[in-house]
Design goal:
single chain; 654 residues; alpha+beta; Four Helix Bundle (Hemerythrin (Met), subunit A); Alpha-Beta Plaits; 5-stranded mixed sheet; 21 helices
């Protein structure tokens, strides 16, 4: 089963994430039948996958969870909160098991206590509900062969315990569902219907109708107590030249190996063609794409010096094609930020319950796409911001009502594209940052002098929150209060080449805005020279370039300042900042943004705009150097990439 393990891990994580979301939705809207059907489908697939792979603990726990999910069909108004809590605890245990399998190959799950809790919930059913319980009939052995690559749906109808004519009802069920698709197999078999005296009637059909329509059709037959519909055989994958594992039906008796998201056959309508690709292959593809960009720029430089007929046109064709290929490779690596957002409904639900707060979560722009590497690293910083908003920002119901606000607070997480960047915002309508309180805490911790307390405004108070070890919490808890969080958020985002800026209005709420590049592998930059060295300044941080001689330079409090029409900016001499000799006669200044400030970097020469393939620097060079990486230029020279956020932290004195 080793060849299936990566597929099992990937699909297992997806199923668990979907189940977390579905249970949150069903808690909010208990009578959402579509979500109930989704829960049954995912849970059954998860059980089959686990059993097939030999992870008995996960399969047993998921089987007991199915019994609780079954109550959703039989009880109006959904499940009690205690049942929801047990389900979430079970999902957490399954998630931990998946991670343990990824690390050690063993599931390492102690399911017995959870199984006992789940069974205690099931035993609470009335005798009538117990009689209505739906089973799963054994799947025919040749179903996959009969399917021929098509999607097969299993429909199982449970007749009333006191059904008067079971053979007639069985015939009616099979006839009704047969009108909605092609019946491949059924139980009882057609020749056995007349003698049928049981309660379970099952059919395996190929149908383009939604599962809900199939369930409604079977339920319309008199004396049918309940109906279960789920996918028994998925569509087969697109032919890739390599042998594909034959699909096996999902059932308690013969669970299937995990199946990759498959592309539909030509006869399947409305399906999208997808294929699961290992992340390492995408990384290699991006690496070689970066090398191609580098070689292209080298050839472009050589082409400008050569006088060969037709070379210019050939170079234009090569450039156009490589640009299209580069764009396509970038799109392949892009995934929706929804991959991060989907963890927050469960997180907000759990924390708001623990804190005794009422919170409405609004997720905006879930389809906004980011480079996979950025998305992978974005999760923890966003979790910090959400936890802070819930703990420190949003008030409890009584405090909100007293302040003239609705008892339920609103937490909004949004994402949108902005040029070559993605902007992600976490905002709440809570109490906001109290500058006076922050100033007092900062003075207690020695971060500011006591006499500075009265001078701390809202913006300065927000900056103090990003100081390492700073916290306004009165007590330490497992949610916050240890002084670890906001400084880690800023460090993580800056490590991705982005920046986080927070704004707050006392009494009205707080907003934290994260700005990130779409990708970390290829960037557009302005190449400049200073002290006979080449530097690259990210293009999205540059406002404009000016000649130093066209503007006045003044000394203010020991710092050189450039006087422009729209403000006075501190000057950072690139030569001196990066270990060279001061260059007071630098000809150009590049006006850039670093954090929430603007400043001017003086350089000797502007070379031009280029697309660069970024490479990380060794730790011994990168630490404290205000550099975010390096890139090879077309002439073979190395350009150091300026970290605009780190440069502004260390102004250079006159």
């Amino acid at each position: 089963m080793d060849e299936y393990l990566p597929m099992f891990l990937a699909e297992g994580r997806e199923h668990l994430q979907e189940l977390n979301l579905a249970v949150v939705r069903i808690e909010e809207t208990p009578d959402d039948q579509e979500t109930v059907d989704e829960i049954f489908r995912i849970a059954h697939s998860m059980k089959g996958m686990s059993a097939t792979m030999g992870f008995a603990g996960m399969a047993a726990l998921t089987h007991e969870m199915e019994d609780v999910f079954e109550l959703l069909r039989q009880r109006r108004g959904g499940l009690e909160r205690a049942a929801i809590d047990v389900l979430f605890d079970s999902l957490d245990a399954l998630s931990a098991a998946v991670e343990a399998i990824d690390e050690t190959g063993q599931e390492d799950i102690h399911a017995e206590p959870l199984i006992e809790r789940l069974q205690s919930l099931v035993r609470e059913r009335t005798p009538e509900q117990e009689a209505d319980r739906v089973g799963v009939a054994p799947v025919p052995d040749d179903l996959s062969e009969l399917a021929g690559g098509r999607r097969v749906v299993q429909i199982t109808a449970l007749l009333n315990e006191d059904v008067s004519m079971p053979s007639v009802r069985a015939y009616m069920v099979l006839s009704t569902v047969a009108e909605l698709g092609e019946t491949l197999a059924c139980s009882p078999a057609p020749e056995d219907v007349d003698a049928f005296d049981g309660r379970e009637v099952s059919a395996w059909i190929v149908s383009e109708h939604p599962d809900s329509a199939l369930a409604d059709a079977a339920s319309s037959v008199p004396e049918v107590a309940d109906v279960l519909v789920f996918e028994a055989v998925p569509d087969t994958a697109v032919e890739t030249g390599e042998p594909e594992p034959e699909p096996v039906a999902v059932s308690d008796d013969a669970p299937s190996a995990p199946s990759a998201p498959a592309a539909s056959k030509p006869h399947a309508k409305g399906g999208s063609s997808t294929v699961r690709v290992d992340a390492e292959r995408l990384d290699q593809l991006m690496h070689f794409m970066g090398e191609l960009v580098l070689h292209r720029t080298q050839v472009e430089a050589l082409a400008t010096q050569a006088d060969v007929p037709g070379l210019s046109q050939a170079m234009q064709n090569l450039t156009r094609t490589s640009h299209a290929l580069q764009s396509m490779v970038m799109q392949v690596r892009m995934i929706p930020v929804e991959a991060v957002f989907l963890r927050f409904p469960r997180l907000v639900r759990d924390l708001s319950t623990k804190l005794g707060k009422q919170v409405e979560l609004d997720l905006v722009g879930k389809d906004t796409e980011l480079d996979r590497t950025v998305v992978d690293a974005l999760g923890d910083p966003l979790v910090h911001l959400v936890r802070n908003a819930l703990d420190h920002g949003l008030e409890g119901p009584e405090e909100r009502v007293a302040a003239g606000k609705p008892a339920t607070g609103t937490l909004t997480i949004s994402a949108q594209h902005a040029g070559g960047n993605v902007v992600i915002t976490v905002s709440d309508d809570g109490r906001g940052v109290d500058p006076a309180r922050v100033a007092r805490k900062a003075a207690e911790r020695g971060l500011i002098a006591p006499e500075q307390i009265d001078s701390i405004d809202s913006q300065r108070a927000v900056e103090l929150l990003f100081t390492a070890g700073f916290s306004t919490a009165e007590t330490t808890s497992d949610i916050s209060g240890r002084g670890v969080g906001m400084d880690a958020v800023r460090a993580a985002i800056r490590g991705l080449g982005g920046e986080v800026v927070m704004t707050s209005e006392h009494g009205h709420g707080t907003s934290a805005q994260i700005r990130l590049p779409l990708t970390l592998a290829i960037m557009a930059a302005l190449i400049v020279e200073a002290d006979d060295r080449s530097f690259a300044i990210p293009l999205d941080r540059i406002e404009r370039t000016v000649r130093v001689s066209d503007s006045a330079v003044r000394s203010v409090a020991g710092l050189r300042m450039l006087v422009l029409s729209d403000g006075v900016l501190p000057i950072v001499d690139a030569s001196e900042r990066y270990g060279g000799s001061p260059a007071p006669d630098a000809e150009y200044a590049v006006v850039v943004r670093g954090g929430s400030e603007r400043f001017a970097i003086t350089v000797a020469r502007l070379v031009g705009q280029h697309e660069l393939v970024t490479r990380p620097l060794p730790p011994e060079i990168a630490d404290g150097a205000a550099l975010s990486g390096a890139a090879v230029l077309s002439d073979g020279q190395i350009a150091l990439i300026v970290d605009c956020d780190a440069v502004v932290d260390v102004p250079v004195a006159a």
